[in-house]
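Journal club prep, notes for RB
We'll compare a predicted complex against what the paper describes. Inputs for the benzoyl coenzyme A case:
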Amino acid sequence: MLSNEQLEKEFQAKIDAEIKIEPKDWMPDAYRKTLIRQISQHAHSEVVGMLPEGNWITRAPSLRSKVILLAKVQDEAGHGLYLYSAAETLGVDREELIEELHTGKAKYSSIFNYPTLTWADIGAIGWLVDGAAIANQVMLCRTSYGPYARAMVRICKEESFHQRQGYEIMMKMAQGTPEQRQMAQDALNRWWWPSLMMFGPPDDKSIHTAQSLKWKIKRQTNDELRQEFIDKTVKQAEFIGLTIPDPDLKWNEERQHYDYGPINWEEFYQVINGNGPCNRQRMRDRIKAHEEGAWVREAAIAYAEKKQAKKNAA
Ligand code: BYC
C-alpha cells in the first residue's frame, strides 16, 4: 500500500501533467475541502445573484428586454444547479451546503449585496459583473478537477451572452437622452469598485491563492485577473462614452497595463462578513424562496421514488 506521502506525490504529478482529477481518484483532504468551499461559494453566488436582477423582471422597459432578462436569470439558476452537482461529486450533500448558506456560514460573492436602483443597474451588472465573472471563470474551464472544469465550459458560454446583453443596455442608455446617459454613468459609478472587489483580496492578502495555484484549481492570481478585467473594460467604457470613476486610472506604457487607484478593502471585508447594504435582505429573500420551493423538491423526490418502485417491481 502506498503511503500518504507517495499518494500526494503521485497526485501532484498528475496535476503537473495536466491530467484531470476525477471524483473517484485519490485526493488530499485539503484539496477536497478547498474545492467544496470554492465550488459551493460559486453555486451560492449564482443563486443569490438571481435576486438583484430578478427584482427588475416586472419593470423591464420592453417585451424584448424582459425576455432577455428572464432568460439570463434562468441561466444563473442553471449555473447554480451544475455547480451544486459538481460539489456533490466530492461527497457533500446539497442540503448541507444550502443550510450553510442560509445560516451565514458559507460565503457568496460580495457583489450581490449591493442594490439595483435603476434599469441601468441591470446593464451595469451584465457588463461589469458578468464581465468580471468571465475574466475569473475562463481560467476555471481548465481547473484541475474534472466535474468543475466541465461545468465551467457551459457556464462561460452563457456568461458571454449575459455580458453582451448588459453592454447593449449601457450602450443604448449612453446614447439616449441626457437623463438616460446620466443613469448609465451613475450605475457605472456605483458598480465599478464593487466589481473590482469580486476578484478577491490583493495577492499579498489572499489566503488560498498560493496553494490553489499549485493544485491548478486557480490558474491566475486575483490581482492578475483584476488587471485583465480593468484593461479590457476601460476600452469598452471609452467606446460608449462613459467615464470610469477612478481619477488615478492611467495607461502605464512601461507595464502595458492601466494603473488604478486604491480599492476600499475595508468595505470589501465588511460586505463579506455580512454587513453590506443588502446582506440581510438577500438572505431573507433566499430563505423565503427556498421554503416556497419545498413542494417542488418533494414532488421530484416522490416521482423518483415511484419510478424506482416500478423498476423494482418489474
Ligand atoms: N466575495 O484567499 P482568497 C457570478 C473570500 S458569481 C465573497 O483570495 P480564493 C455571477 C474567500 O472565499 C461570481 N468572498 O480566496 C452570478 C476567502 O474566504 P474563506 C462568483 C470572497 O478562494 C450571477 C477569503 O475571501 N464567482 O459569476 O482563493 C450573475 C480570502 O480570499 C470574495 C466565483 O465564485 C468575494 N468577491 O479566491 C452574474 C468563482 N473574494 O472561503 C455573475 C470561483 C474572496 O476562506 N471562485 N472571498 O472564508 C474563485 O475564483 C475564488 O474563490 C475567488 C477567491 C477568486 C472568488
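Talking point for the session: The two ends are 43 Å apart (CA to CA).
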